[in-house]
Amino acid sequence: MRRNEEERVYSVGEVNRMADSLLQELVIWVEGEISNLRPYPQYAFFSLSDEEAVLPCIMFREAMDGAACELREGVGVLARGRLGVYVKRGQYRMNVYEVQEAGEGRLRREFLRLLRQLSREGLFDERLKRPLPPFPDQVGLITSLEGAAVRDVVTNLTRRFPCCRLVIRGVRVQGEGAVEDITSAIRLFNEAYPVDILILARGGGSLEDLQPFNSEEVVRAIRASSIPVVTGVGHEPDLTLADLAADYRASTPTGAAEAVVPSSGEVMALLRSREASLSAGLRRRLQNLEREFHLLAGRRSFTDPRLILDQPRQRLADAEVGMVASMGKFLERESARAGDYAKLLARYPREYRDLPGRIRREAGRLLTAFGAWWRWRSGDVDARQRDLKAAAQSLLSGQEGRLRLAASRLEALSPLAVLSRGYAIASRRGERRPLLDSSEVEAGEEIDVRLHRGKLFCEVKGKEEGEGGE
Amino acid sequence: MAERTFRQIMERLEIIATTLEKEDLELEEGLRLFEEGVNLVREARRRLAEASAKVEKLLGSMEDLVTEEFLLEAEEGEEGRET
Q: Nearest chain A Cα to B72, which residue?
């Protein structure tokens, strides 16, 4: 085989360098598992492998120092680096600049980072947890319309508590669009379709599947919801961040349904106790009243009604005694002074000389009047009651008289009363309307005549027309 | 007047039970509350016995929401599929 003269012949080194420079264009992320790790002080050799192939790698000290995870045999990682060829050996390999744990490891790390960050912000604070309404009228459910979760919630909720309405918003619960679906469903219920409580549910899954429930967006949407949120995620023992943010966390969709509504049995029991407390409340009320009544009834004022008046009467009497006494004193003083005046007056005309005597007589009269008044005021209660009763009776009998009078006047107006004075009413046979004019009947016609007592059945023998029947 | 919801019935009952325990309640008022309470208990029992929960799905967007009856798809084996 002859070579073309124009074709250039390369050295081995040149070829390898050429391959190296072509490959160096590629700075990429690769996912694989670390194997065949050989660490040296300044660098480490290892391979990234998956089911299909093996990629030789080298990582230098400075890259390793800044790496997010340690290089360990068997660990799945995401590695970013530049491809190249080791010229001397013609060996193709990747110069790794950074590594991260891949898959579950990466998710778990991200989970812990968010957990720390959001806890620091206080989003998982126990004090933020709101109480769940005990008897929700409307329950909102955010979950996938397919699968076990929706069925578990629907079946358990409707079986337990028939007095409510369940409104389901179907969302994607994993993969692309799930975070967006879940957060907008929470907003939707809050802004456009207020329910009493929200359930966010999905069946169990891998950490990857649960990713939306560990997203910052969903956590914030739950905390921003003014409707309390209950989570029921899968059968996983692991908590999601959504669980931590929720007002109540159930471990399964069924658990969420049970947390949100009471069972009919529980409600029936509560109703029984409510009923009992109603009766107890009323009974206590009645017992209190009875006790109060007995206390009152036992008081002397009630056993002897006169005692009601006792206190005020006593006070009145005291005041009156005081008044009479001071009036007496006043009069005495005045008459004493009158005596003094008398000496003075002796020098004056006769009509004045008798003044002290007149004053004394006047004082005596006043004292007598006071005494009478006082005796009347402090007089026997029974006597005064008798007076009152008598007055009331006379008033009543006055009314009764008037009533009788009124009744007799009413009676006088009744047509029947007119009959009692000897008048009669005639009407055509079978009719009640009285006959007023003789022209209304013909001779030979039969008429009825009503008297004060009883009726006459008559035949008109003849008649006379005219004004007034007299 | 719209019919009371179950929750409103239970809330009213709670208020009545608490009020009945107060000392300063007039007897007339107490009797009235007792009667109202007993009627509410009766109504709640009736509803528990007769009601059946409504299940609906919420379709459409924020501006244009509709609800539609939601029926569980026929059981596909007792275990069902995981989502």
A: A151
Predicted complex ipTM: 0.81
DSSP string, A361-389: HHHHHHHHHHHHHHHHHTS-HHHHHHHHH
The DSSP letter of residue A213 is G
Q: How many helices (H) and strands (E) does chain A have?
A: 15, 13
Token digits of residue A270: 């509560």
End-to-end CA distance of chain A: 172
Average pLDDT in chain A? 79
CA count, 13 A, side-chain hemisphere, B48: 23
Residues, chain A, total?
470
Alpha-carbon torsion (B70, B74, B77, B83), positive or negative: negative
Which two structure tokens, joined as six digits, stand for A441? Answer: 């009947």
Q: pTM score, two decimals?
A: 0.53
B40: helix, strand or coil: helix
Contacts of A260-265 with C-beta under 8 Å, sequence gap 24+, read: A260/A132, A260/A136, A260/A139, A260/A157, A260/A197, A260/A199, A260/A230, A261/A135, A261/A136, A261/A139, A261/A157, A261/A160, A261/A161, A261/A164, A262/A134, A262/A135, A262/A160, A262/A161, A263/A160, A263/A161, A264/A160, A264/A161, A264/A162, A264/B48
What is the 3-state composition of chain A as percent helix, strand, coil, each rounded to the nearest 5?
Answer: 50, 20, 30
Helices (H) and strands (E) in chain B, counts: 2, 2
- How far is the C-alpha of A411 from the C-alpha of A207, rounded, in Å? 103
Question: In this predicted model, what pLDDT tens digit does every residue of A375-396 receive, in sequence order?
Answer: 555 555 555 555 555 555 555 5
Contact B83 A147 (CB under 8 A): yes
Contact A196 B7 (CB under 8 A): yes
Taking the C-alpha atoms of residue A55 and residue A34, their distance in angstroms, rounded to an integer, is: 10
Give the pLDDT of residue B78: 44
The closest alpha carbon to B45, from B8, B6, B19, B83, belongs to: B6
Contact across the interface for A193 and B25, Cβ inside 8 Å:
no
Q: How many CB atoms lie within 10 A of CB A451?
A: 13
Q: Which of residues 115-154 of A touch B (CB under 8 A)?
A: 133-137, 140, 143-151, 154
Confidence category of residue A44, pLDDT binned at 50, 70, 90:
very high
Res A339: pLDDT: 58
Ramachandran bin of A234, using left for φ above 0, alpha for ψ from -120 to 50, beta for the remaining angles: left
- The residue in chain A having the minimum alpha-carbon distance to the alpha carbon of residue B5 is A137
CA distance A261 to chain B (A): 11
Residues from chain B that touch A282, judged by Cβ atoms under 8 A, are 20, 30-31, 34
Contact call for residues A252 and A235 (beta carbons, < 8 A): yes
For chain B, the residue count is 83
